[in-house]
Amino acid sequence: MPPFTPRYPAAVYGAWLFASTGLAAILAAGALSAALAHAPTRAAMWLTAYLVLVVGVAQIALGVGQARLASRPLTPALLGSEWLLFNGANALVISGRLLVRPNAVAVGAVVLAMALGLFLRGVRGAGGGWLFRVYRLLVALLACSALVGVGLSLFTTPAT
Fold first, then answer.
1. Quick check: helix, strand or coil at residue 39?
2. What is the CA 52 to chain-centroid distance, rounded?
């Protein structure tokens, strides 16, 4: 595979924005895990996994994937909106889960769906290669997991 050479400079800034935020979430999860290793709780284990998988890895994949797939210039407004919606949604989901507020989790899922829609808009016209299919699969997986998360928060008892 040839080296990554983006056609649009804003895409590079977007990739860095999402990658650095995702990396910070992964590092925060590691620090949280180390700090709570002596007395882990279900909530702490959930938070650690969520920070790594959704706020970290998925955010990096969405941002870098979008930069790689962009077939037209990505505007700072689009990138900023994606970042704010994606991270705002995660903040709502995390706080709703930890404070046992299912409505916050549901609102977070709706905001996440809006962010995912913007990510799909950012790669519109990218063609049908394997990377595009994997990118759309990631978006679908995140959307489905958000629905499952809302269901679990509504229909399960809170865990400590």
1. coil
2. 10
- For 27, what's the count of Cα atoms within 13 Å in the CB-facing half-sphere? 6
Cα dihedral 50, 52, 54, 60 in deg (nearest 10): 170
Amino acid 115 reads A
pLDDT digits (tens, 9 = 90+) for 126-145: 877 899 999 999 999 999 99
Domain ranges (residues) in the chain: 9-155
Instruction: Give the helix ranges, DSSP H, for 36-129.
Output: 42-50, 59-69, 76-98, 102-122
Note the pLDDT tens digit of each residue in 93-137: 999 999 999 999 999 999 999 999 999 999 998 877 899 999 999
> What is the model's pTM?
0.90
**What does the alpha-carbon distance between residue 17 and residue 19 come to, in Å, rounded to a whole number?**
6
Contact by Cβ (8 Å): 96, 105: yes
109 contact partners, CB below 8 Å, separation of at least 6: 89, 93, 146, 147, 149, 150
Amino acid at residue number 29: A
